[in-house]
Amino acid sequence: MQHTQENESLGIRIGLEIHQQLNIGKLFCSCNPETAEDAQPDLIVTRRLRAAAGEEGEIDIAAMHEMQRDRLFIYHAYRNSTCAVELDEEPIHNLSHESLQAALQAAKALKATPVDKAYVMRKTVVDGSNTSGFQRTALIARNGEITTKKTHITIPTICIEEESAKIIETAQDSVIYSLSRLGIPLIEVATGPDITSPEQAREVAEHIGMVLRSTGKAKRGIGTIRQDINVSIAGGTRVEIKGAQELKLLPKLAQTEAQRQKKLLSISAELKKRGAEATGKATDITGIIKNSEPGFVKSQIEKGSEAVATKLEGFAEIIGTEIQPGRRLGKEFSEHARTTGAGGAIHSDELPAHGITQPQVDEIKRKLSCSQKDAFIIVIANKEQAEKAIKAITRRAHQAIQGVPSEVRKANPDGTTTYLRPMPGSARMYPETDTTPIIPETEGIEAPELMTEKQAKYEKMGLSKDIAQQISRTSFAQFEQYTAKYTRVDPYFIATTLLTTEKEIRRRYSITPDITSHDYEQVLNSLNNDTISREAVFEILLEKAKGKPLVEATKKYAKLTEHELNNAIKEIISQNKGMPTNALIGKAMEKLRGKAPGQKIAELVKRSTQQ
Hints:
The protein is α+β, with helices and mostly antiparallel strands.
């Protein structure tokens, strides 16, 4: 309740961008995207990227920011999952028809109107995640909505775009990417800024994810769906947080960002009151701190780095203000410094530390003409990097005076965020020149049956709520196929077999089972024909997991006739004369496991011992 009232007072507004990978090859070529994590590349390519001007002749601010980092990009290519399209050595092929159909299905479910013509656009991206320096995207539908009893959320756009390359390793001046993921189709669903609480953000994201999975074309697993969350509060501005992979993290990210913006507005008010200013003047202070006590500063200077400082007028005791849990404003200054290639920054609110003594702090203040209300920032790097870092920090200091900067941030696992780059603008988009407009074929496209609708249907078939929910979200295609085909088998038994068999084999026997759809079909067919018992299904699949051919395992557990079962039980009783009935039942169960229903075995043992 407290959070709800607080969010209302903050005027929090949230919008989501949901990106779902499709299990349909690649978007602009016929490559298979599957490559083993430890696979060795067949080709390694190195490149540097330059930002191109957009349709209006301007270079996007975010693209310019990335280009100025001047990083080297190293690409690993694999014969089975990459071709000349991913290497940007060949024009793209036609957009995948199946991917487009999946996007149109999702649009139908979200009540969106398909566009008359879909134009593939280039979105400038020079962080190395695409070899071409841009990501291709196409608007497929507009003006959708999500309507429930509790909420109404607008869906302005539904797009289909290509997935980026996967980061393998990052260094200060280079990034290694794998190209196996590049080009996988993504459906992107964007909501309006209609969400008014962090918990509602999670509910909306979960609903959209459910809709996308209901198409039957969505990939599953960690990393196959990502949520970008846009957050603002009254008096603040839109900040985009990228890369939240877990739904449970969304509320914390939104709450933390709202509080960060509140703190930044408070800091801005105080800085304006003080008449704060950042001149950006860089002063060499290497001589003052070169004889620091052993520590980070001394070691860096001994390696040949220089120490450069700048005064921040009116910032005393402000830079050390906590604006996220465990993260202070000075941390954001350091993050901006790092984007220039420098290792970070040290600020006066945290000194003396890092080997810098109080007398050295006092001497730096004198050299920079700092008053009691002023602070300073130090960057230790080569001269060129240090001066670039000072400029970046000065820009961030000016933003601190103004309020909340509109920017893109990275989601951290603990719910905090890290600065990535400025917010991009319209200058980053321009038309793709290697393809023609696409007229979406909407005839015959129907909204998929939603997983929530499937769950309700399965409950009516006799499944418990929990089992119905699980099967509707995982193996519904198999389940529906098998229940339609094997009508003499209880649907509940089919569902639990699909959901639990492989898990149980892994848990009880430490075996990773290789059980195929064909295996399930064969076993269920035998059960449907009454040639095996229900108890035999797990045993047969266990034998298969252990490496035995399915046909042999099925013969081993073939169902006994009434006559054969009676004779087998009589033999067990004869061999164990004087044994208590319950013990005899145990013996019979052990020997006849899977060859007859357990209840029937117990009944026959009891009947035979009473005669």
